[in-house]
């Protein structure tokens, strides 16, 4: 089980409160999309879950166990950012293997994990290429592949498609849905694209100035937005 539970999470940078008491439970295997305007705390929320930022108050639990004391590498989490830095001098295969090298796994096991991730992401034919010759979508798939090979319990995606053009974003949207079905992992996905949120999410979290405005299925938010802000964000008249 890899449910994610945030309890009373607060985070401030200096005088600026960025997360203002966030309570949220993401079920094991659930795909939750976090939406909200720029600067509302979406990235900080993911970084707190990943252990890249320590909350000023509150707690994070994964799989029923509090992880506040654990460094990022021991949380069973993989995070994919919008700016995915691949190693330019390494092949796709080497980029994927690199993610596993620290774990000192047997060579055959590393190869098998990379082959499986490549098959899942349709990268098998690209394994010998360098990132420079790949398209934006292919590079993004390699970045996701680096997350998959480590077999995390939880995936955190921070606007993973925002650097891609519109047509590619639509295609990649289907790939994320397929990936979620294939892996059955718990996923938290940040975007400011409503359509992406509505099509991918089991549930959507609407964040505003560090507070959760509403959590619900796309249908619930569309039919019954709790506030004018949610209605505006989801694009329904109210
Ligand atoms: P979002 O991802 O929703 O755009 P962020 O979580 O990145 O928002 O940022 C929320 C607020 O916190 C912003 O005002 C941002 O400037 C501020 N912030 C984020 N990280 C830091 C940091 N390391 N130091 C100071 N301020 C930060
Ligand atoms: Mg952000």
TrEMBL record:
Keywords: ATP-binding, Nucleotide-binding, Sugar transport, Transport. GO terms for biological process: carbohydrate transport. It comes from the Bacteria. Residues 4-234 form the ABC transporter domain. GO terms for molecular function: ABC-type transporter activity; ATP binding; ATP hydrolysis activity. The keyword Nucleotide-binding applies. The keyword Transport applies. GO terms for cellular component: ATP-binding cassette (ABC) transporter complex, substrate-binding subunit-containing. Belongs to the ABC transporter superfamily. This is Multiple sugar transport system ATP-binding protein. It comes from Hephaestia caeni.
